Amino acid sequence: MTEIVLKKVYKAFDSVEVLHGIDLQVQSGQFVVFVGPSGCGKSTLLRIIAGLEEVTSGAVEIEGEVVNNVAASERGLAMVFQSYALYPHMTVYQNMAFGLENSRMSRGEINQRVFKAAEMLQITDYLKRHPKALSGGQRQRVAIGRAIVREPKAFLFDEPLSNLDAELRVTMRKELAALHANIGGTMIYVTHDQTEAMTLADQIVVLNQGRVEQAGPPLELYNTPKNLFVAGFIGSPQMNIVQAQLARQSEQWILKAGQTKITIKSLTNLVEGENCSFGIRPEHIKLANVEEADASVVVELTEQLGGETYIYCRSEDLGAFNVHQPGQIPVKPGELLHLNFDHSNLHLFDEEGKVLANGL
Amino acid sequence: MADSTSLPDRIWQFLTLRRGGKRWHWTDLFTYGYLGLGIFLMFGPVVWLVLSSFKTPAGLLEFPPTWAPLGQVVVEVEGYEKQLPMYRVTMQDGSTKDLAQIRRIGIISQMVDPAEPSTKFKIPIKQREPIREFRMAWENYLDPLERFNFLSYLTNSVIVTTLATLITLLINSMAAFGLSIYEFKGRNAVMLFVIGTLMIPITVILVPVYLVVTELGMVNSLWAVILPGAATPTGVFLLRQYMLTIPKDLIEASRMDKATEWQVYWRVVLPLAMPAIAVLAIFSIMWRWNEFLWPLIVLNRSEVYTLQVGLNAFQGELDVQWHYILAMTVVTLIPVVVVFAFLQKFITTGIASSGMK
Question: Which is the most buried residue in A148, B3, B45, B233, by most CB within 10 A?
């Protein structure tokens, strides 16, 4: 079992700083997902852990040992690349055996491990083929198999599913989850797809512009985002974010966005007249009648999926505003909708985007 | 069905392929003409060389030249030790007779009828014409192989070519690996420096290199030919440019797979660079096999001659034995042609699929 700790990791390419002091603890046996928009430094961070990239300052510890000066080949980690990086001149078997041969394992042991992994991944039939004769999904399995046979201290995945089509991605996602349950190693997984992050992770680390925005279990990030970025990034469709102002009206705190006024419960850290923003997820909104409504919007477009309905609305006060409802909702573009927000799922952020309250 | 047609039919079909349509278009004719010209330009000299190599010395000097190797018919005549050449003679009465020439004195030729060796004729040389037949002068090939130290030269050439090519491939690919896979300051400067050496012609460095070789005591040893040219800027450049196209992920993947740098080079980069290696191998073999000036300078004893230097022996100051030179040139061409035939498919092999989309 392997614990990986990053301490104040900085990374700069020439004069461009891409990681600004990352502190992170990956616990043994956990499936940790680094997620963030492209260019946020998540792949660089993974490559630093792998040893393919050097840190500018800070420390990387694997099993309590600082590995800053340990070469990638000596760190005992295995990595699955976005491009799979299968050796084109070797058969599937040779691809999987390569790492074991390098650690001078006996033929019998290599054989046994390769066949075991091949069986687990259902690629036994392709062992004699070359990578170019495989489909994307099969190559992906071989790449994972190549990592598994090594029995590494930890697995590193660099956007492994992004080259697959949507359907296969879902299948492979499930298989990866099953794999983790099965072999139970420490896994670090990089993706820009928040759905992958939500479905796979024990811990999600949201990165943005070289900083950790928030780290925690998926639902914690979903329910109690620490800032606007995480609120907007986690969850699909995105949370509705509305610019507003804090005001007091007859002993009660209200959120004022244009003519729309939403009464909220009193909190200690509120300052009257301050600009703020509040967020509400499309699924935490109910259709209501005028008296109960927090806000009103005009329907622009609806997507009826049968089991659920997405309603894309707009209003002068709230801007673009999306509503997600279960079942089939017969609304038409141009129609006025009155919405009631679930206040326990209303998020309030200050001017800098830090959360003031999750649930109002 | 295409399968049921016989091979000659199919070859004919292939050779008369048209752009489409039933009639010959001028572009078809133009294309065939152009291709024909190409074939003539490429193969004409080779065919001429091979045909000429079977001609006798006299046949070679003949003007106008003949295409096919023709030899004068010779016969044994009773009472004469040597074989006598046959001529067709126009007699004074206008009839023609086949006679053998005993000797020629000025413009008169003394001749004899092989059927009746007792009677002799005196014929002006204008009235006789050599009788010739198609004859391959195999002796052009056999004589040098026996008299001339061909096998020893061949062995030397093979040793030089093989060893030099192996060394060239090894050290050039190592240099290319360093200059393509590693990123370090001054990498491009080093590369420019390597390419820059291309601007120095061999004639300029002939003397200094000779001094070095002498100092190392390698004169008259094959190493003197093998070592100096082993590192070629062209080879480094060729391999390096190819290695730059190998996806970086593969190198990193092999490092993650606990491969040492040697294993990265030997088991991943080298096999993937095979097409470029093959091209360099062909070049190197051709360069080394055909190398002349440098071996001529450093090899002074006949035991260490390579073929090209050995061939030079036929070319004296006063007398050039063209028939031997041509025949031996054909022989020396064969290995290069064979190598090219086997390796040329690598030249066209594109980048091996890297398993990437």
Answer: A148
